[in-house]
Write a structure and sequence with these properties.
By secondary structure, this protein is α+β, with helices and mostly antiparallel strands. The chain has helices at 3-9, 23-34, 54-67, 95-115, 125-131, 134-139, and strands at 46-51, 82-89, 119-122, 146-155. It has one domain: NADH Oxidase (3-Layer(aba) Sandwich), CATH 3.40.109. Bound molecules: flavin mononucleotide. Flavin mononucleotide binds next to strand 3.
């Protein structure tokens, strides 16, 4: 798949078979994360946490479920076998830029995963769940002072990934 196709064919996948992706595929997705732009090249203040441990995934999923209406979102991680959490050390004055950098990291992973036909979905529920839960924060081994800022679930999808799609142009655009 070429880059432009991977970008436009990316879509949120919310049904996973439970089968994990291979280490080689995961490494390629993580390489895409490592290639992302970060404000002022502040890579020292970013951490990627790859969560494959089912017990920890369940803890995050339970905490996410408790935060949101559980009927509307019974499985906030959709049963995906892998979650990559992006956490940043946030300095005063750089809050928005660090969150924006986390977004760049997550989107790079989403595009790479699409290219590899791996199901993927941005997940905010896990960010909020970890932010408010010291037990999970500690289980993730996050050093003090880091804030979860974005996350992506990955796994084999129950539907085709990377198929052509045409959303039109959903974002308003002004040319001056
Ligand atoms: C910052 C951010 C947070 C998101 N959080 C969630 C989430 O918690 N759960 C979810 O199912 N989708 C989440 N999404 C996916 C959006 O709902 C999705 O991108 C949007 O509906 C457009 O659909 P598409 O990704 O298929 O193009 C999130 C997307 C972004 C950018």
């Amino acid at each position: 798949m070429n880059t432009l196709d991977a970008i436009s064919n990316r879509k949120s996948i919310r049904s996973f078979t439970g089968e994990p992706v291979s280490q080689e595929e995961l490494d390629q997705v993580l390489h895409a994360a490592q290639s992302a732009p970060v404000v002022m090249a502040d890579y020292n203040n970013c951490i990627l946490t790859v969560v494959k441990d089912r017990e920890v995934l369940d803890l995050i999923e339970d905490a996410g479920r408790a935060l949101f209406n559980s009927d509307a979102m019974p499985n906030p991680l959709y049963g995906a076998p892998t979650l990559v959490l992006v956490s940043m050390r946030i300095y005063p004055g750089r809050e928005a830029a660090m969150f924006a950098s986390a977004g760049a990291i997550v989107e790079n992973m989403a595009i790479a995963a699409t290219d590899l036909k791996i199901g993927n979905c941005w997940i905010w529920a896990s960010v909020t769940a970890v932010q408010g839960n010291k037990e999970i924060y500690d289980r993730l081994g996050l050093p003090e002072g880091f804030t979860p800022c974005g996350s992506l679930v990955l796994g084999r999808a129950e539907e085709p990934v990377g198929e052509p799609r045409d959303l039109g142009n959903p974002i308003a655009m002004t040319v001056i």
